[in-house]
Amino acid sequence: MLYLWVKAFHIVSVVCWFAGLFYLPRLFVYHAQSEDRVSQERFSVMERKLYRGIMGPAMIATLLFGGWLIALNPSLFSQGAWIHAKLTLVVVLIGYHHMCGAQVKRFARGENTRSHVFYRWFNEVPVLLLLAIVILVVVRPF
Question: Can you state the angle between helices 125-139 and 82-109, rounded to 10 degrees?
């Protein structure tokens, strides 16, 4: 029963983390398009609060609950290479998360050099990662 509770909290944490990973780059799009100082400051505050207040804690909870699931069921590593591929994509996702954090800081300093078009494409990365991770966990293709 403990395993199912941990799994439920892991899923909730993943949903919260991805909500931020989907929304923050969208804020970058709007921020890159903004021209007045008031809007730019407002976007900087929103980005910082989203990154630090929601995304960071959600990522940590996701990793803690995911690690707990592995500790409760270490046989996952003997069920094929899907778990290794999934964990590799999670590491990539953590890197993306930190890239977002670096961009939050650049915007706050007024040092953004990228266009809103770049951020529209940048916003698609977590979609592709989520798709791949869910397929690996559900289908377990290898």
Answer: 160
